[in-house]
């Protein structure tokens, strides 16, 4: 066919190739510079975001009818290093929230030298009734990973790092009255209420033994809570089927590197990514309970970045059911 219209396809692509190789090189160089600049900008933004701590506030109607509210501070995944002064200041300020109960869902410190600063920063909170479980990162120092590798597969527990003195942290917490819930139960009197709590070890590392805490809630408790580091389905299923009133977990870092806004790509366990952070619910054997997953306060020191997922502590106001 004749005509003067533009020709598309291979013929046109060939026609668009520049005759001057130097010109092509400049264009390629410009494109690479633009991509590199964009990557550096996003990485810098993610580095800044990992230091932009916030306190989220959530209401959960889970108490027996007629009871006044309980304030529960949920902290998780600090991964503290001793040089992280901004994070230490954030932790120290949390005492001003005046919670009735503190729940810590693990991965507290990433070096032996961070345990002292962590305990000092938590100072006033350790005078409040509290409970904790450990995450696998409480037991070994981190080793280098490609920060982006977890976007493509769940991590495996780090066995290569040197052992951390988790027993020092355990002693520091329990000597101040916090209860260790790693495959253990506890009963606390909190703001005039009797609260039963049960927890497991880190399911991501296979340290969970729910059978050690299984059973129906006591009828003389005002509230029964489940606490675990990694919210694997087997742990949530067992806790909710037994009838706990609410479950707290951490581990996911909310996805850490997310799509806008707070949409996790992966959560490093078998929980649906839509539940990687915040308040949702879990149903098992006909029972449903609120599930709160903290996006966490820190990251591995080897990957100190977050994208569309700010580091957080959460103040949950537990209120009476309608
Ligand atoms: Fe963590």
From TrEMBL:
Residues 70-254 form the Calcineurin-like phosphoesterase domain. This is MPP superfamily phosphohydrolase. It comes from Brooklawnia cerclae. The lineage of its organism: Bacteria, Bacillati, Actinomycetota, Actinomycetes, Propionibacteriales.
């Amino acid at each position: 066919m004749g005509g003067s219209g533009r020709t598309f396809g291979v013929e046109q692509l060939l026609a668009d190739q520049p005759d001057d190789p130097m010109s092509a090189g400049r264009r390629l160089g410009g494109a690479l510079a633009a991509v590199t600049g964009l990557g550096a900008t996003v990485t810098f933004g993610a580095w800044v975001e990992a230091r932009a701590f916030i306190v989220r506030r959530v209401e959960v109607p889970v108490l027996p009818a007629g009871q006044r509210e309980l304030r529960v501070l949920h902290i998780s995944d600090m991964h503290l290093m001793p040089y992280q002064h901004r994070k230490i200041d954030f932790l120290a300020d949390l005492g001003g929230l005046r919670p009735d109960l503190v729940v810590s869902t693990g991965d507290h410190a990433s070096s032996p030298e961070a345990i002292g600063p962590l305990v000092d920063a938590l100072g006033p909170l350790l005078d409040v009734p509290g409970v904790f479980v450990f995450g696998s990162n409480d037991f070994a120092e981190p080793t280098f990973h490609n920060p982006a590798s977890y976007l493509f597969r769940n991590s495996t527990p780090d066995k290569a790092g040197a052992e951390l003195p988790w027993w020092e942290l355990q002693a520091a917490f329990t000597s101040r009255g916090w209860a260790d819930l790693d495959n253990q139960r506890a009963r606390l009197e909190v703001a005039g209420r009797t609260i039963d709590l049960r927890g497991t070890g880190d399911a991501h590392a296979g340290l969970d033994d729910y059978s050690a805490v299984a059973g129906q809630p006591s009828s003389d408790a005002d509230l029964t809570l489940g606490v675990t580091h990694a919210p694997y389905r087997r742990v949530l299923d067992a806790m909710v089927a037994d009838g706990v009133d609410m479950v707290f977990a951490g581990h996911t870092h909310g996805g850490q590197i997310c799509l806008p806004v707070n949409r996790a790509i992966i959560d490093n366990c078998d929980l649906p990514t839509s539940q990687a952070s915040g308040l949702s619910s879990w149903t098992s054997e006909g029972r449903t309970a609120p599930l709160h997953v903290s996006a966490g306060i820190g990251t591995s020191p080897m990957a100190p970045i977050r994208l569309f997922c700010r580091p957080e502590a959460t103040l949950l106001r537990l209120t009476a059911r309608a």
